[in-house]
Design a protein that fits this description.
The chain is of the alpha/beta class and 369 residues long. It folds into two domains: 173 residues, Rossmann fold; 186 residues, Rossmann fold, CATH 3.40.50. The protein has eleven helices and 15 strands. The strands form three sheets. The protein has a six-stranded mixed sheet with strand order 5-4-3-6-7-8, sandwiched between helices. A five-stranded parallel sheet has the order 12-13-11-14-15, sandwiched between helices. The protein has a four-stranded antiparallel sheet with strand order 1-2-10-9. The structure holds inosinic acid (IMP) and magnesium ion.
Length: 369
């Protein structure tokens, strides 16, 4: 992974792959051009590296020159293409091949065609190393395409993000999500998980995803996933993991700009933990830690009985029920503790003390991640 300015990028196309693609393009073009002496025109700035490597591979005599256009601002292509250096030589009756680093919307290409409208070239062909078919909005033919890529921002090998990255010999793609801190929060009933989640959410600007809340929200709003989940719940069956994961996926996508997530109530099984890892991986991210609030059983029982006096929750009133809930919690989480501990991601935090003290202890763990 690399960072340019404020953004993170992941490796996407290696120098070796680029070299192979160039080799292929050179061969195709050399075959079509035959014995003519072509003029290769690189579009600056992006194509300087490509043009250099390309012509070094070109097996026969050729000419090389450049046009300089500018359109991009940050991560976005703009309609307004500036012509900084145009054609500086007579191209009448010449075979001209444009070398582009990347074709995105096609705005730049439109400007290239405008530049050539009054030139009496023998032929004008377009070659591009990268092409984003989903972003391309023009009809101009692309004669030679190196690699078709999804509509995601890339840097390296001539391509920049606000000036940086052009010198990289390989290509990187912007991460789906930027740098995140993702926590799985655990705690037995009465440990103060909800209270702490609220504080952590504020302090670190995290999004708190409680699967219970997400389910209720989706069912209440009768989303497709909510309706599906309800059909299981009403039959008294467990909601299949995939349905839950799909809901979490939607939540994560909705909050792709967040600093991270606090997962609460999920995962509960090994399979779910694996599914969550897979989900985060697909978002170019990961679970950084499982944090469990540790509170002695007797303290929990006392706290819950105390809460039961005012909360009106039936399950907080009966000591046997409380002890059973605590037992279920430990039975469930023991497996997960092992799962995360195996990745050095398990952190137990003493959950006895003042709210502030406990927040401090949790923060100490998070700050070290
Ligand atoms: P178009 O005019 O939208 O086709 O975009 C062409 C120009 O935008 C390229 O020559 C690049 O300078 C720039 N560009 C398009 N996509 C990217 C990208 O993913 N990374 C960096 N620059 C890009
Ligand atoms: Mg360019």
């Amino acid at each position: 992974m690399i960072k340019l300015h404020d953004k993170y990028f992941k490796p996407f196309v290696s120098a070796k792959e680029i070299d192979n693609v160039l080799e292929r393009l050179v061969n195709e073009i050399a075959k079509d051009v035959g014995d003519e002496i072509p003029v290769f025109i690189g579009i600056l700035n992006g194509s300087f590296m490509l043009t250099s490597d390309f012509v070094k591979k070109y097996p026969k005599p050729c000419e090389v020159t450049f046009i300089k256009l500018a359109s991009y601002e940050g991560l976005k292509s703009t309609e307004d293409i500036q012509r900084l250096i145009g054609i500086t030589q007579d191209l009448t009756d010449r075979t001209v091949i444009i070398l582009e680093d990347i074709i995105d919307t096609g705005n730049t290409l439109k400007e290239v065609h405008r530049i050539f409208k009054n030139e009496k070239v023998k032929s004008l062909k377009i070659a591009t190393l990268f092409y984003k078919p989903e972003a391309y909005k023009k009809d101009f033919k692309l004669h030679y395409v190196g690699i078709e890529i999804p509509d995601k921002f890339i840097v390296g090998y001539g391509l920049d993000y606000d000036g940086l990255g052009r010198n990289l010999p390989e290509v990187y793609q912007i991460k789906e999500t930027q740098h995140m801190t993702n926590l799985v929060l655990f705690g037995p009933p009465g440990a103060g998980k909800g209270t702490q989640a609220e504080f952590l959410k504020e302090k670190y600007n995290l999004v708190h995803i409680s699967t219970g809340d997400v389910f209720r929200f989706n069912m209440k709003n009768e989303t497709a996933l909510g309706t599906l989940a309800k059909s299981y719940i009403e039959k008294g069956q467990l909601v299949p993991d995939q349905v839950t994961i799909d809901m979490l996926n939607a939540e994560v996508e909705k909050n792709a700009q967040a600093n991270g997530f606090i997962f609460d109530g999920f995962p509960r099984t090994n399979a779910q933990a694996q599914a969550l890892d897979k989900l985060m991986d697909s978002k170019d991210s990961q679970i950084n830690a499982m944090i469990a609030l540790e509170v002695d059983d007797e303290v929990l029982v006392k706290r819950l009985l105390e809460r039961g006096k005012t909360s009106g929750r039936k399950d907080d009133a009966d000591e046997t029920v409380i002890r059973n809930r605590i037992k279920v919690y430990y039975d469930e989480t023991a497996i997960l503790k092992d799962y995360f501990a195996a990745q050095d991601k398990y952190f137990g935090v003493d959950g006895v003390g003042s709210i502030e003290d406990i927040t401090e202890r949790l923060s100490a763990v998070i700050n070290k991640l």
